[in-house]
Amino acid sequence: QVQLVESGGGLVQPGESLRLSCAASGGTDTSVYLWGWYRQAPGQQRELVASITLGNDIKYTDSVKGRFTIDSDRAKNTVDLQMNSLDFYDTAVYFCNARGASGWGPNRRDFDLWGQGTQVTVSS
């Protein structure tokens, strides 16, 4: 069974950087077609921050363009989010999402999974 494990959150000061990582583990012949990083600030709806497809089609929400970079490793089934020039409004719980498939032949199944979330706090 495929599971997502996130790492890399923490407390930083404005202007500093953090790198978040997410790995899909378990399952057999697992392929992730679409990775997404989302965030949810207190009292706010969850929003898509960045996404990357198997074909390397990348999208960012406007507020992070030029500051965040998403990157994935197909062979390892991992995705990273490099966050530079962090600001107070980037404070949120960050979640990774993976859509893909796992399993052999007739047992192949699609999945749409969420990581456990990791806290990013930007504070002086």
Number of helices: 0
Terminal CA distance: 41 Å
Supply Rg. Answer: 15 Å
Q: What shape does the CA trace take?
A: elongated
Given as residue ranges, the uncertain stretches (5+ residues, pLDDT < 50) are: none
What string gives the helices and strands in order?
Answer: EEEEEEEEEEE
Helix content: under 10%
How much beta, percentage-wise? over 45%
Structural class: mainly beta
Pick out its properties.
124 residues; mainly beta; seven-stranded mixed sheet; four-stranded antiparallel sheet; elongated
What does this structure look like?
With 124 residues, this protein is mainly β. The protein is 0% helix and 56% strand. It has strands spanning 3-7, 10-12, 18-25, 31-40, 47-53, 58-60, 68-73, 78-83, 92-102, 109-114, 118-122. Strands 2, 4, 5, 6, 9, 10 and 11 form a seven-stranded mixed sheet that branches. A four-stranded antiparallel sheet has the order 1-3-8-7, with no helix packed on it. The radius of gyration is 15 Å and the shape is elongated. The termini are far apart.
